[in-house]
Known about the structure:
By secondary structure, the protein is an alpha+beta fold. It has 16 helices and nine strands. The strands form three sheets. A four-stranded antiparallel β-sheet has the order 1-2-3-4. It has a three-stranded antiparallel β-sheet with strand order 5-6-9, with no helix packed on it.
Amino acid sequence: MTEIIRRKATVFPYRGKWRVQYLDTFGRQRTQTAETRKDAYLQLAEIEGQVRKGFLNLTPDEIPSLGQYLGYWLQKREPELNPTTHWCYQSHVANNLKPLMGNLRLDTVTARQIQDLYSYLAEERGFKSGTVRKVHSILSSVFKLAVKQGLITHSPVAGVSQPKFEQKQIEVFTKQEMECILRHASYKPPKAYLRWLLALRYGLRQGEVLGLKYGDFDLVSSTLKVNRTVNSLPGKGVVELPPKSKQSARTIPLDAEIIQLLSQIQDGRGFVFAAEDGTALEATVDQRRWRALLIESGIRHLPLHSARHSVATHLVNGGVNPRIVQLLLGHSSAAYTLATYVHPNTLDIANALGFSAPRPAHKLEVGYQATLEWGQDLMGDSK
């Protein structure tokens, strides 16, 4: 009669002897034979002891390489990750980890080897600290799982120093620059103007704007519900995703100008800013239109995400409660908004202290001439 010891281990009689049957880390069934029932239980106790110590009765040849285990880890984590994060992990594994350390047996990887990897990525490949920290996060999770599954006794990542976090230096537009951009955008069709108003007045993320559908706008209550984002993934095209975080799902009040623009746009059921086939517009097309708008406006080129930082900076500097700015942008806390998205300059500090300071000069290019230099094809995308 079979005696159930654990859900994944059994002790039972077999041809005059006793057997211990259990599953190893990879779900493979293993069997050991004992002369007596007592010996079988002793073997089971030894197996459980090995598991607690970090061993699972695997021979060196059976322990996977780091490359093999990375593939297993990616497959195991995929259901719990959003597609963008999974693709990012997959890219790091394929391009950085497998080629450089994939052949090492999992239980032989040392802290020194991992530290050398970080140095190589930073010095030879020019990776910034944030990118190396992502690689560190992957390896930390991989070896934590290996310890939990009994393949190794401890994680070598515990002995590694990860790069210090370096805050990115983000430039923001001045109020005058933002007004100039929106003034030029107002000459475009209503839908194009709406797109840039959502960026430069409300600070919506690019993926949030491109993921908007007509049903997200409520003209009766004058509100906008942000409840999805879109992203372009290699091999998958534009994919629809849930908001970046719980706080990113939010309802935003709309002003009269936005409501008027919406009344001029033909109602539909799909994406507001759609491609010709009705799918969400790709981010690269949107970015080309952004560059074209800056050229038309004669404004220095800053990344589209700088518009979001600019909105936060000028709202806080204008006296708006940081908590309100946090809710508008969909951040987890007002402290994060202040630390990451608010960038006061010398002029702001001088104004706060009650005296004037030289205003930073940003040369305004002639829009038409700059457009010619960038090429007419860029302008074609902005229409």
